[in-house]
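User: Predict the full complex structure for these chains.
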Amino acid sequence: MKKGSPTNMTAEEESVLQPLLKTGKGFYIFVGVLLVLTGWFLYCWYTQLSQGLIVTGMRSIYNAPNYMTYGVAGGSPWGVYVTTFIFWIGISHAGIAISASVRLMNLNKYKVVARIAEVLTLVALPMAGLSIVFDVGRPDRLFNLLEFGRFQAPLLWDLSAVTTYFMATIIYLYLSLRGDIDKLALRIPRREWFYKRLAMHYEGTETEKERHKQTLWWLAIAIVPIMVTVHSVVSFVFGLMIARAGWYSTIFAIYFVVGAIVSGVAAVYSLAWIFRWLYKWQSLITDEVLKGISWALRNVLIIYIYLWIAEELTTNYMGPSAELRVSSFLWSGPYAPIFWPLAIIGFGIPAIILLKPVFARKAFNPKLAFIASIILNVALWIKRFIIVVPSLLNPPLYQTGIYIPTVTEVSIILGTFWMAALLYVVFLKIFPIIELDAVEA
Amino acid sequence: MTKLTMIIDLSRCIGCWTCAVGCKAENDEPIGIWWNRILTNGGEEMDTPSGTYPDVSMSYMPINCQHCDNAPCVKVCPVGALVKREDGIVFLDWDRCIGCRYCLIACPYGIPSFNWSPPIQFPDNSQFKIGNPLVPVRPVGVAEKCTFCFQRVDAGNLTPACIEVCPAGARFFGDLDDPTSEVSRIIQTTPTIRLREELGTEPSVYYVPPRNTARPQEVQSD
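Assistant: Here is the predicted structure of the two-chain assembly.
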């Protein structure tokens, strides 16, 4: 056999490792397009860094754009950057959630999607962090957070929770990957030098395997509370603000955690479906597995819609004037063209698609559920937007403001998506996206 | 102990914005930023009365930083750039602020402003310096707000710029812990309110409510 070519592989392994072995034209086009888009993002970010946040659509609560107008044209001090931050944290949520529950509850059937989910977490968290870097006015002073950080500020809770979560995820992913890396060193000799170093003297003995399994189990136990904490503290950034109608409520932590699980599970479903379609993994990621994920997605979605209704009822029934101002801004005001399509198309239609297998005899349709998962991901971004912005546009004492994101701003947040896709693709080319153990079992 | 306090007599305020302009000159506020604003109660636009003719009334609400004892902005600042000083001033350290704008979000009065672009002074600062030289120039990307003219207070002058310029004599400033001061006397003799007191922010700015300026109901003639 030619030196450097893959060796000693079973048919299943070859199927799982095909992204590592074969690289087609489509891949280069995809990466090329992503690189161009990332370049555009970098240019936009440079513009923002050199000119200040004036290039965004965000403005102070009370703001006079020039000396000819008085301060009636207020704006929203936070906008799509913070929205995208919540979105990425939400995406990161389900990754480890799925993986940890697979390990803790012995759901071996779903082990094939565990790594898809873990990598999603790993990619999403830096993007969440970057969104905050875009948002602050002085990114050069971010180290003040470490030097002068005060633990009474919810933003510092975020910082600590997210970094802890990120470190735990890296360790978790590495430990679950180590055995596979060791195997890869044998299977793909031309990259042996790389995998051998990365495996760090992994022997593959039974005791070692058992020790990894034990450690991962305990890490999974530790990660579950961290995961709930991470999204709760994101909600506390908003839910503790007494001055903001529409935010100040006890439901927020639960609301955000459930919302995060919805968006995370939806993202994992979308990715699992895409990989299955791309690499013809119908026998690995079976209909049964996809059905199970969509079942979980449906349940959390129903809880989310329930919480949403509870929130709307609370703000509208007795209706404190400030709360009514925000909710009428959404229900019948300038944001009604966002709110109603979001409720009906963004949440209603996926709920119907996912609920249908319960009532109809017709078997579960993976493609329809895929469409539902994509809609849900977009819908949850918009939902976070209409949580963040309308409350800020309706400040007490002042007139209703305007917020229109600029092209620069939107390019920058889209940049996080291109970069996330790039990182994911790089991972896909270096490591197996499905655990080799899961296939052999 | 000192507890610096401001009292604004709304029955005297004529809505002339002199305090805002005086403040802007003293503190060298760039274009687009006003530490002091004079809102018109109820009207749709500035200087328009509330109500429908003939039941109209007009009054103003000057708003600057309330220097709360339990300040939401101090609570949420992640780097401690906002501090409550011993004398009651809520001070923003422009050299430490990272520009997260959490104070803009947390403030119930919408007070802090943000330097979205590099500050533009008018007239141009390099040729014609008008601000008080003791006030540091704020860079791009930080928040800023009323400081009760800390530079004057620190120099022992208990007359912030807005107090000095107010032509209607509607503003008073002093130490509330000193029983002989003017503010103590006013608070003891006149009913005062504080803005959004129900939020528990304990503001240091007191308002003397306006007298009823609405026209008496005209007698129906039928």
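Chain B touches chain A through 50 residues (CB under 8 Å).
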